[in-house]
Amino acid sequence: MSREAWITTLVSMGVCLVLFGLGVVTILSIPGLGAEAQLLLPVVVLAGLLIAPYVACALMLRISAPHQRDEDQLRPNVSSRRMMSSSPR
What we know:
Helix content: over 70%
Radius of gyration: 23 Å
C-alpha cells in the first residue's frame, strides 16, 4: 500500500467521525429533526462513509504537497547532473 493510500485511509477515518458528529448535532439540536432521528441517523452515517474518502483524498493532497516539494528540492534534476558531469575540472 502506498504512502498516499495510508494517509488517505487515516484521514478518512477522522473526516468520517467529524461528519458524523456534525450530522448528529444538527439532527438532535433541531426539534423538528429530532422526531425523525431514528431514520435520519443511519442516513448521516451512510452519507459520512460515502463522502469521507473524497474529502480525505483532497486533504491528503494538501498534506503531502509540502513534503513532495521538499523531496523535489533535495533531488537535483537530470539536466543539472549532466551539466555537473560535463563541466571541466
